[in-house]
Every structure is written in structure tokens, then in C-alpha cells.
Amino acid sequence: MTTFLFIRHGDTDDVDEALAGQIDSPLNAEGFTQAGQLAIALSHLPIDFIFSSPLLRARQTAAPLAKALNLPVAIEPGFNQVNFGKWQGVDFRTLEQDPQWQAFQRNPVEMHSPGGDSAVSVLQRVEKTIYSLAEQHPSPALIAVFTHGSIVRHSVGAMISLPLKNFNYLRIAPASVTTLSVKNKTGKLLHLNQQVPVNWR
């Protein structure tokens, strides 16, 4: 069994304000504080590997834990944020008036971001990446993954066969930890959206 700690990046100025997507926004002051708190909360765990989305906010969140554990941060494109196309950078107040956005919130299978990724393609990308890492690092590996709220939702959905139309009902907070175990391409959700302190079993 390979265990994954999926960690959403810390706070940025876009969180709860605008849809950043693949815009490379940095952590704000609160985000850096959260990254430090995560390092304290997780540094006692027997983490073997650290992976991160290529985006700056994820890498900045990973850095304190990597320093505490003296582990490298491997960049994994499979955990990059969703490309939301023309919606990227748009504030949520504006998006909430967009009928396409409203349809996407109801069912991301039937409507995906204009010019961006489809939910199905992201799910396939994330699932492939998780299974590949589980094969490369079998039991009893413990892997920390620093990524994005949408990618955490897709990871949970892929491992427990959650219907895509229900993904948007999962709340993934900044600097939260969601724990999944994988064995023989079968996943189990152990913890969802945990705040520090963190359990991993």
C-alpha cells in the first residue's frame, strides 16, 4: 500500500476571490505562514518522497517541509492545476453570473471551461500519475504531494470512483491535507480536508 498526502497550497490573493487556474500566482503572507505550520505538523511523519505541481504557489508551500526533512521536491506535471481557459483570472463574482460557469458547477462533465481542460482529461491525467507513482514507490511508501484544490478533488474522485458531476461538492481548503492509500490500483480515502495537526493512518 502506498499512502499519499495530498496537500493543497497555502493561501494566495486569488483564493476565494478569482479563479487562478494555471496562472502562476505566489503565496501571500498567510500562505507562507500556513506552509510553515504544515512543515511543523508533517515533519514527524515518515515521508519518503515529496512531489509538487510545477506552479509557484505549490512549490513555495512544499519548500519548508522539504527543508525540514532534507528531501528534494520533484516536480510532477501530472499534478499541475486545471487549465480553466478563458475563465482564468476572472473573479468569482463575475463567474457566478456566467451561465456556462453555472452549468459547469452543476455538472463539469457536460460543460468544461471554454478553451481549457475537460474534467475527463484531468481525471485521466491525475489517475495515471497516481498509479504510476504507486507502482514506482510501492508499500510502505508515504508520499507528500503539493498541489491544487481541483487536483485534490480529482484525486479523491479517481480513487473512490466518485461521479465527476459531484466533484464540485468537495471542499478543499488552502493548506489542508487529504490522505489516500493505493494498492493494486484500488484506492481508499483515509482523511479529507484535514487541518493541522494531521493524522495519516
Description:
With 201 residues, this protein is an alpha/beta fold. It has one domain: Phosphoglycerate mutase-like (Rossmann fold). The chain has 6 helices and 6 strands. A 6-stranded mixed β-sheet has the order 3-2-4-1-5-6. The longest helix has 18 residues. The protein is globular and about 45 Å long. The protein starts with a strand and ends in a 7-residue tail after the last strand. 40% of the residues are buried. The model has no long low-confidence stretch (mean pLDDT 94).
Task: Spell out the blueprint of helices and strands.
Blueprint: E1 2-8, H1 29-42, E2 49-52, H2 56-69, E3 73-75, H3 92-95, H4 99-106, H5 119-136, E4 142-147, H6 149-160, E5 177-183, E6 186-194
Parallel strand pairs: 1-4, 2-3, 2-4
Antiparallel strand pairs: 1-5, 5-6
Helix pairs in contact: 1-2, 5-6
For this entry, give a set of tags:
201 residues; alpha/beta; Rossmann fold; six-stranded mixed sheet; 6 helices; 6 strands; globular
Kindly summarize this structure in a few lines.
By secondary structure, the chain is of the alpha/beta class. It contains six helices and six strands.
Q: Largest beta sheet: what is the strand line-up?
A: 3-2-4-1-5-6
- Average pLDDT metric: 94
Largest sheet: 6 strands, mixed
Number of structural units classed as domains:
1
- Note the gap between the termini: 12 Å
User: H/E series, N to C?
Assistant: EHEHEHHHEHEE
